[in-house]
DNA sequence: TTGTAAGCGTTATCAC
DNA sequence: GTGATAACGCTTACAA
């Protein structure tokens, strides 16, 4: 079956209409070799007239390049892959490249399958989107083309892993809170086995220490990435330490939970307690009450950077190691506006 | 550059290793023609040994089919495209087909560009994901392969549009509320220019009428799809109609806003006022307090169905018109559990 | 049963 | 400057 052969316009048709050979037509269209100006004109016009679209398959067969990259993720349904994907897709589109998308859904079998598929499809490179959790096994040996790991780190230091600078993001938060004259700062975050959670704790503690401070309660409250945990931990923390004047939350959901409980407990935000989230999940952070100061991971940027490095690798200039890209503090009312 | 030619395993390599011609090797691998059992064995083993992956480009060049479909969306960042995409990707993966993803971001220029790109890449078909707003112009004439429109309807009745049954979803909600002995039901929803918003109103009113009821206040409160609007409208509605005993909200965000205000006003949910959302946006609906009864659009299913129809069209059996797929009510505590 | 050869649509290498 | 011709990797008549 497939498409009707007849209705597919080929270079031969264009050449015929222009009265030249396919070779000349090809050169004219690709600005290769020397073609007489008027010949080129005729060819271009013929191509235009027939709405000629060069067959990418045939091209790829010769060049060995498909101008396609494979994007492999494990959690498209989550909210981190998408911005990365968008950033990458945008950067690729500018270079006339396309994205083959595969979501392995955390299943190793599925992942293997997709890798084989993508390799068979001759993708020029891979972008592997991980999660903010631990390092993940390198796919290195299985893949004959350049790979860039984004958001989740590869175990192999010879791979390139591109991460958000979680430690730096946490530093921004604490510096901001201290600048707002907060001194008794608590930290409620997700599971301790998340690399991102630990990194943020490290960053936060560093800045606190530089200012002669410690976390309220001494330790962060590790739990889960949910509103429910945010509510629970906030209640607990404020009961034990009623003089807490700021909460740094590990993500926006936790922060929203915190806001709810603070309101219940009669604490004003930001007057009594400042609250900071993480992720800048707009639909939550900007629409809650009060709007949430939070950290933006610059994920779109991360995706775009991944593409840049992938191109470099395709050009024979691979980068290796772990690169951390700065985050950005988004200040909203929950920490008191500058005004 | 492109990949090193040398390290790409080709059918020729396999044939050589097996000591047969490429033709025989091809037949053996594709179970075509008559090949001696032991010959086939040798070929299969050689292929295995070399980890041979047939070059999809070469295959596609011959067959005219690429086993690739283009998925065109306008709002990947929103939360509707993703589940549809996942459903489609899953269904396609089962048939060894892949997805080329393009997000036009609502930009017509970009959309045209992507369409050209995808056509040049010889995709076998398109899935166009729209939004729940108005009908959108058919892309019909520009595309030489089958197209299925999902979530957003095409202007052309000769196209196939696959939608969630918004009217039916609203019916489920109202029937449920009435079964819970609610009689004074208000409706707060998004902008009136959204087709989905209007359809839901229609469905809700139909069931109310069947039960001799009307919406509290007579009219739905059209606004925006935000918590903020949910808060504002709830305050307004309950002030004007203090005896309201149920709120049907146009989406989960509005419902969350409603929950907040109800708490502030000292109304218990669900005891005094039952609240229902729409979309079953898990991370919001399941994690708020109390968890939200809401309507699930079955979007993954929608994506999978789209693929089915696309396959049918590829096999020469296209469907046309508008198909509406049922929604599903997810009952949680905000309307009182069955218990 | 197996191998030879043509051809898918394009680009690259040569002669002319 | 232009046009045969040979690839690219694979499938498929058709011949052996």
Automatic annotation (TrEMBL), chains A, B:
HTH lacI-type domain ranges (all copies): 9-63
Domain of life according to the entry: Bacteria
Listed Pfam families: LacI (PF00356), Peripla_BP_3 (PF13377)
CDD domains referenced in this protein's UniProt entry, alphabetically: HTH_LacI, PBP1_sucrose_transcription_regulator
InterPro entries: HTH_LacI (IPR000843), LacI/GalR-like_sensor (IPR046335), Lambda_DNA-bd_dom_sf (IPR010982), Peripla_BP_I (IPR028082)
GO molecular function, one term: DNA binding
Keywords: DNA-binding, Transcription, Transcription regulation
Protein name: LacI family DNA-binding transcriptional regulator
Organism: Hamadaea flava
């Amino acid at each position: 079956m497939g498409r009707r052969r007849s209705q597919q316009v080929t270079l031969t048709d264009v050449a015929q209409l222009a009265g030249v050979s396919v070779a000349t037509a090809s050169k004219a269209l690709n600005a290769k070799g020397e073609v007489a100006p008027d010949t080129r004109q005729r060819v271009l016009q013929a191509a235009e007239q027939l709405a000629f679209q060069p067959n990418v398959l045939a091209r790829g067969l010769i060049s060995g390049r498909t101008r396609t990259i494979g994007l492999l993720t494990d959690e498209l349904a989550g909210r981190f892959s998408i911005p990365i994907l968008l950033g990458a897709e945008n950067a690729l589109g500018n270079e006339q490249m396309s994205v083959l998308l595969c979501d392995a859904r955390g299943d190793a079998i599925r992942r293997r399958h997709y890798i084989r598929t993508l390799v068979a499809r001759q993708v020029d490179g891979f972008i592997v989107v991980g999660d903010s959790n631990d390092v993940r096994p390198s796919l290195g040996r299985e893949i004959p083309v350049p790979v860039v790991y984004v958001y989740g780190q590869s175990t192999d230091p010879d791979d390139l892993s591109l991460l958000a600078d979680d430690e730096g993001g946490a530093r921004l938060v604490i510096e901001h809170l201290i600048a707002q004259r907060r001194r008794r700062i608590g930290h409620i975050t997700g599971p301790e086995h998340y690399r991102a959670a630990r990194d943020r704790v490290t960053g936060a503690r560093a800045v606190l220490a530089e200012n002669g401070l410690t976390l309220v309660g001494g330790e962060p409250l590790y739990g889960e990435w949910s509103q429910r945990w945010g509510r629970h931990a906030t209640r607990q923390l404020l009961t034990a330490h009623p003089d807490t004047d700021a909460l740094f939350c590990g993500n926006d959901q936790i922060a929203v939970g915190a806001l709810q409980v603070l309101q219940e407990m009669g604490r004003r935000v930001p007057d009594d307690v400042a609250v900071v989230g993480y992720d800048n999940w707009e639909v939550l952070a900007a629409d809650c009450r009060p709007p949430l100061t939070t950290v933006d991971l610059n994920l779109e940027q991360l995706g775009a950077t991944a593409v840049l490095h992938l191109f470099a690798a395709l050009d024979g200039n691979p980068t290796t190691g772990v690169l951390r890209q700065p985050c950005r503090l988004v200040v909203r009312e929950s920490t008191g506006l500058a005004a």
